[in-house]
Amino acid sequence: MIKRPLYLSFQLFSIIKQFISQRFTTAGLMVLGGLVATAVVGFDTKQSMAYQAFTLLLSILVFSLVWGFFFRARFTVQRKLPKFGTVGEPLTYRIKVGNMTSKKQEGLTLMENPEDIIPTFEEFMHTTEPDEETRNPFDKAIGYHRWMWLLLKKQVTNIEEQAIPTLPPYGEGEILCKTAPAQRGYLRLTGTTIASPDPFNIFKSFITIPNHQSIVVLPKRYPLPDISIPGTRRYQPGGVTMASSVGDSEEFLSLRDYVPGDPLRRIHWKSWAKIGKPIVKEYQDEFFVRHALILDTFLMAEYSEIFEEAVSVAASFICSIQTHESLLDLIFVGAETYCFTLGRGLATVDRMLEILATVRLCRDKPFSVLFHSVIERACLLSGTICIFLTWDEERKNLIGLLKSLRVPVLVLIISDRKAPSQVDPGPMKGDLKNFHILQAGKIKEGLAQL
Questions:
Q1: Hey, which CATH number is domain 71-117+155-218, 1.10.260.40, 1.10.10.10, 2.60.40.10, 3.90.380.10?
Q2: Exposed end of the chain (fewer CB within 10 Å): N or C?
Q3: What gap in Å lies between CA 18 and CA 63, rounded to an integer?
Q4: Quick one: average pLDDT of 166-184?
Q5: Buried (b) or exposed (e) across 110-135, using 16+ Cβ within 10 A?
Q6: Do 112 and 192 contact (CB within 8 A), yes or no?
C-alpha cells in the first residue's frame, strides 16, 4: 500500500527538482536559499531583524517571476542532427535559431527537451538495483536509491544548456551542441526551449518550440585483433537471395541451347535474336561461407551491465568481420526469434548496428527457443560465434550439439566483475583456444587476447 504513495512522492520530487534547476539561475538558487534561511531566523520579528532581508529577497523574487510574463518573443529552431551517435563518444550537432521579432534578442540560452524519462510504477516496483542487496532494510523498503538509479539508466544523454549568440532583428544565430551518450537506443528530442533571464538574472522565462527528432545511439565498440574463424563453404539452398527471403537464386554459369522443359524465364532473349535459335542461361548451386553471431538475451534483470557488454562485443564483431564474400547471421531472441543477415549485398553494417542499438533482454521465453533456432540453421553454417551471459547446462548442450555437427564454434562468456575467471569448459575442453571468459570492465583487454 505504501509503495504507490512513495512512487508519487518521488515523481513529484523529481518534477520540482527539475523545475528549480532549469528555471532558476545560480543567483536565483542563492536567493531561494536566503529566503528560506531568513524565514526561519526572522520568524520572531521582535528578536531578529532578519525579516527585513526576507522581505527584500521576496520582493526581488516576485519581481523576477512577474517579469517572466512579459517575455513574448518568437523564434524558429532548426537542428542538423547526425544519423547516428555512439555510446561514450562525443556527439556534436548544430542548431540554427531565428529571431522572428523586430527587437534585438540577447542574453538567451537554449535547452533541449528529451523524451520523458520518469520511470513507470511497474518499473519502480519490479526492477532490482544491482547494489540493492547491500543496502540496509530501510533503504530497500523506501526504494529511493532504486529510483535515482532508474532515472540514470533511462537517461540516454545529458545535453547541457547552451548560450545563444546575440540575435539581430529577424536575424539568425548558430549553436554547436556537444554531448556524449551514456546509453544505447533512441535519443528522442521532443522540442527546444529558449530561456530569457530577468534583469536580476534570477528566474528564467521559457518559450518552448515543439521539434520532434531522434538520433540512434549505437553500442560501444571495442577493437578486435585479426580473427580467423574456421569453417568451409556450405551449400546455400536458393543462393544469396534466399538468405534475404526474397525469391530464388543460383549463380550464373554459362549459356547453352534450349532443351524442352527449360523454364521460359531462363531464356536469354538477346542471344536468341542474334543466333536465331533459343538459348537459355545455365546456373549452378551456390556454395559460400556463412557464419552465425549468436547473442544471448536471456536474463531476468531489467538492466544488466554484462548484457550491455555482450551487445558491445557483438557490435565489435559486426564491424570487424569482412563479409564481402561471406554472410554473417545475427541471431537473438526478443519478442520473437530474429535472424538478420549481413554481407554480399544484404543488410549493411549500419543497419546491423542499429538493430543492436535497440535489442533488449528476453524474460518471457526459455533458452530453448534460441537453441532450436540455431540448430535448424546448423547445416548452413560454416562457423558460429556465441556470446553468452552465463555458462550452464543448456548452453553447454547447444555447444556440444554444434560440435557434434562439425560446426566450429568460438565461445565468449561475459561475466560480472566479481565472477571467477575460470569455469568448467564442458564440451570446449579440447578446444580451449576458442573458449574465453570476458569480465565486465576488462572487455577490451579480454578481446585483445583472442
A1: 2.60.40.10
A2: N
A3: 22
A4: 93
A5: bbbbbeeebbeeebbeebebeeeeeb
A6: yes
- Name the residue with cell 580467423: 228
As given in the structure block, the three cell numbers for residue 353 are 548496428
How far apart, in whole angstroms, are the C-alpha atoms of residue 32 and residue 19?
A: 13
Q: Across the chain, what does the average pLDDT equal? A: 85
Residue 221: closest CA among 334, 308, 294: 308
Report how far residue 125's alpha carbon sits from residue 147's, in angstroms, rounded to the nearest whole number.
10
Place of cell 511497474: 122
Please give the full DSSP string across 83-106, using - where no structure is assigned. Answer: SEEETTS-EEEEEEEEE-SSS-B-
Going by C-alpha positions, the residue among 339, 341, 411, 392 that lies closest to residue 370 is 339
Residue 45 has pLDDT above 70, yes or no: no
Cβ contacts of 232 within 8 Å, gap of 6 or more? 289, 382
Q: Is it the case that residue 403 has pLDDT exceeding 50?
A: yes
Per-domain residue ranges of the chain: 1-70, 71-117+155-218, 251-284, 287-448
Which residues make Cβ contacts (< 8 Å) with residue 407, sequence separation at least 6?
A: 231, 378, 381, 382, 383, 384
Closest CA to 241 of 283, 294, 286, 282: 286
pLDDT band at 166 (very low <50, low <70, confident <90, very high): very high
